[in-house]
Amino acid sequence: MSSQPAFLQRLGRYYVIYALGFIGLVGLLAVAEQFGLSSRWIGQIFLFLTIAIYAAIGVMSRTSDVSEYYVAGRRVPALFNGMATAADWMSAASFIGLAGTLYYSGFEGLAFVTGWTGGYVLVALLLAPFLRKFGQFTIPDFLGARYEGHFARIVGLFAAVLASFVYVVAQIYGVGLITSRFIGIEFEIGVFVGLAGILVCSFLGGMRAVTWTQVAQYLILIIAYLVPVAILSYKVTGVPIPQAMYGQVLNDLGVKELELFTEPRENEVRRLYHLRADEYARKIADLPESLTTERIAQVHRVGELRAQGAAARDVSAAERALRDLPHTPDEARVKWERARQENQARTTHPPAHAEAHPGIDRVARDNARNNFIALTFVLMVGTAALPHILARYYTTPSVRAARRSVFWSLFFILLLYVTAPAYAVFAKWEVYSSLVGSNISTLPHWVASWGKVGLVKVEDINGDGILQLAELTINSDAILLLVPELAGLPYVVSGLVAAGGLAAALSTADGLLLTISHALSHDLYYKMINPEASTQRRLVITKSLLLVVAVVAAWVASLRPDSILSMVGLAFSIAAAAFFPALVLGIFWRRANKWGAVAGMIAGMGVTLLYIVRTHPFFGGSMEDAWLNIHPISSGVFGVPVGFFVIAVVSLLTPQPGPKVQALVDYVRMPDGGKKRR
Amino acid sequence: MGRNVTSVEGEERARQRAYWRTTLLLTAVLLLAWAGVSFLPGWFGDELNTVVFFGWPLGFYMASQGALIVFLLIVWIYDRCMTHLEKRYGLNDED
Q1: Which of A289, A342, A388, A546 is the most buried (most CB within 10 A)?
Q2: Per-window interface: B 36-75 vs A, CB < 8 A
Q3: What is the pTM of this model?
């Protein structure tokens, strides 16, 4: 190992050159666009070039050394580990989804912003330095050593694989979406292109390659996130620092909201949606007769149009409407109920952006507030329990570096999270102030092009030719991708944003895949099945498992499982309840023993899963069975305290852990010797 | 001789115990700050929103930016204090 400062300096130089090179490339493409380079080409150049860069780093960092493969040789400097953790952490959901969530839920969405950053305080204070001192390879490693044996290790392994797999499928799904939308290939093919991008990084070089590509990916994703909104901020306020300027815009937005919500035509449109929702409710109540009436009426209409010799287009539209009618009353009930809810949702004004915990009455407001607090709590504790994040702190050279690296992680993550609310406010301001109220026939061309892929919908329900707010629907995932076009920026910025989204999804997928394959090969195979395995054999097993898990995850993603996506939020609750109490008590409470930990992990995870099944519509549950009206996404708010409680009670009822464990606890609490242990 | 070793060991252990006790105190104080800044602005969002802070309603500002800056500060303070503690108790492993 070369001396640390020289290593740091060399790394710094490489990445500065790389970042400048990337900015140069963006500039070059911007010029080329002026000379007529087509947007399709720009998208392809961005995506393939960035994947090629990641692949090159992956190939350069290939390794067959176990310590290098699992923990990057434990010599990643704090600053770079911070960047890598930030890329590992910020997924497609943070990059693409967060701005849209904040756009629609305003204050309520801020639970994600505080939750996903505040968790790092818990990582820094309660876990990272101690795990680094312990100095093994995986999180189940710690559970196995601290809680004496395979039982705790297996429970940890199961939770790690469950939480990570759901999460990785969502990332690959995100990759498929981006590649298919920006380079116009099929979604399923896009998924496998993304898979190739993921594998070239992680397969050859394990944690070492992933770490260095994640640093590269962080730089791209942060540039891509900041540039469009900085330009938009400059356009609106004259200062290109959106994080500092959006307070003023938020204020103006509040005035604009008040104006729009009292506008007579706006209320007229909302009344029309109300009528339509009532009509659906009537039809649902009259099933099955209403379906028959509907079908007869539509058959008549087709006949009439034919008899009149109407235009072929009108006839075929009527025929299609007839074909699309639900076939059975049950199908009709589902379809119409969805339509009724969609229309019903448009009958009320969205809450004011800055209003905390909106609701129609005291009870609804209190519910919103309780859920806000519960969600913040679960996201924080879940952050501090996700195995792919915790494993990153094994890679630093010392305990102190692990501590400092949490600081850098949080710093780099913060750059994106303080910008996301600004994105939402600026985008909303643009939509409310310039799009709404304009003539429908002269809307900007992106409305039509995004309309084609179904992400933007405009319907002139009152027929006045003017766009009312209630007549416009924008898919929440499209908000971020739309900002460059909202601000009237050249296509190269859209390509940049796509490359950033791809970097976010790929980097997270890499970290997760490593966690899963390490858990299976290291904890299951090496530690439990065949402890005599040679290092050679261990690496072969790890690499083949990585390949298998990646292909399975891509296959699941290519089925477009909506249910999986909605379950990503649940991964936080599961990880929080399963890991957090056992890890924290393992370090801070000497008396916690094997039986307590196993019982606590199972009880915590059990309560969480039970609550999800009781209340999540996907499992046939309903919010009527909820406790305190807490939504299933925050189920960990019950699981975590139960986990702590059960560990405490069962540990006290059973004998205290042996001297070896006592010595281990003493060992991890003391900071020295971090360097000596490899 | 034997007594000497025990007293050296005892001193070492006492030092480690004191270090750990101070660590726990620091952790508790910082966790209290973390909990306050994480949950109070959410709970009193309405009340805080009536105050305007550089153009932001204060409740919104705290949840979207203020709390995050405090988190960063907490982690920074923890690192500084722990490094200091390690030095004071002679447990530092870096130059």
Answers
A1: A388
A2: 38-39, 41-43, 45-46, 48-49, 53-57, 59-61, 63-65, 67-69, 71-72, 74-75
A3: 0.88
